[in-house]
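P.,

For your records, the input lines for the assembly:
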Amino acid sequence: MRKNNMFCYQCQETSRNSGCVDTGVCGKDSEMSALHDSLLYVLKGISVACEAVGGTDRNTGRFVTDSLFATITNANFDKDRICKFIAEGISIRDQLKREHSLNGELHDSAQWAPGSREDYLSKAPFVGVLSTENEDVRSLRELLVYACKGIAAYAHHASRLGSDDGEVYRKLTSYLASTTEELSVDDMIATVLDAGETTVKVMALLDGANTDAYGKPEISEVNLGVGTRPGILISGHDLRDLDELLKQTNGTGVDVYTHCEMLPGHYYPAFKNQEHLVGNYGGAWHEQKSEFSKFNGPILMTTNCLLEPRDDYRDRLFTTSITGFPGVKHVEDSEDGNPKDFSELIEMAKSCEPPTELENGRIVGGFGHHQVVALADKVVNAVKSGAIKRFVVMAGCDGRHKERGYFTEVAETLPNDAVILTAGCAKFRYNKLDHGDIDGIPRLLDAGQCNDCYSLAVIALKLKEVFELEDINDLPISFDIGWFEQKAAAVLLALLHLGVKGIRLGPTLPAFLSPGVIDVLVKNFDIKLIDEPAKDVELMMQGR
Ligand code: FSO
Ligand code: SF4
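Structure tokens returned:
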């Protein structure tokens, strides 16, 4: 039994880069942490049952993905919602057992009886992270669980657009079930790398779902200033929510602004020319408290990253889907694929002041793989002529650590013949700086959200093909990744699956990687911790 009040080390901001043991740096308290542990255990039980019946049906797959997504850092702080997930999970598992007469010996995770919140809290200490004693086994199991959370997030978005992949659901449950088994370290490493392959698949699935629904992202200018009408701010990653909000606000006199990971909404043909989609407001998620205060109108959080709201905007904040916060209004998911009802936000907006201007000017983005591949000749010529010496992938997440200033410095220090490829909220550290261009190719190419790291992989593979290279590592590309939450763990595994070596990672190495697992990653993939910006820039420009 664990000695701490709680134990969580799933994100980059974990206390002392070791683990949150009293309360989470993110605001998750010990009770919530215990409920997360319980929910995870129930999901493992469902997965064990799925393994026993040899399949994962769509409803079970969707339930598992939504539940996993709800446990991602800064997604849902509502204990009642997590308790509901636990109860529903037990009921789904029991139905599976009944339908398939699974009366044999199943792992303990498939045996929990329905109970009260107190029951789940009392059981949690026996099933949490520290219940696995061997630190390498714990590390590999947790790495796999965090990758599952990332995969689940992307599967959730794809599913919202009608794209479900039964194989992704099947993989998710097989990975979760594997964490209940005594496997060799080699087998666990193989499973973790397999999760990298599934991440590539699910990012491709989401890329297809997004582009089918809203068109192929185009190079677009995005306004950073504000208009004179009241507005609604939409944050998070769910493009369908953006679509439905734009439709419902059209003609109402209420404008829409994107925040953080919703910025790439402006790159899609379906959205970019809508006049009431005025611009992007603010920067990365961790600045939200002051930005939401100044926005003056309603704010819709479609996914993480959500922080405890200040009182001055709490009443203007709305969660939806898997996000939640106690006392904050929640827009319910719709049944049967109908749109959600955003009328309460729209009515509220009408009586609000327009947003207070934070900045002005414009930024350019929309360099998804379709756009960059369309520019392939230009890019290839620039590489051949030596005008472009190197691409540096600086994708991933932003966060609060002051050491993240490293990424701004790298962006500023890279020489003029280096091009930055970015995706995710990491870009807010440097996307408003003037990087100039190389023969008309901007030196900062933003592909979009963190899942659009898929675009960066497609671009790299395309360049490998054009230059007729055997190995992706022979390309003039370096990877300098900022990570924060569990989607980044999945994306990192995706890069490893694609054979990328020499990735720099920061601002810290994940606390959930044990020294033994770090050794394996260093030996096989040459993963490194970021160092001084100038030194890293010099090494990256030398291909090291
Ligand atoms: Fe950022 Fe948050 Fe997109 Fe994450 S807003 S940190 S990796 O949720 O998913 O990049
Ligand atoms: Fe700590 Fe991060 Fe876990 Fe929150 S999600 S409790 S900050 S490790």
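Two observations worth noting. Residues 218 and 262 are 15 Å apart (CA to CA). The two ends are 45 Å apart (CA to CA).

Regards
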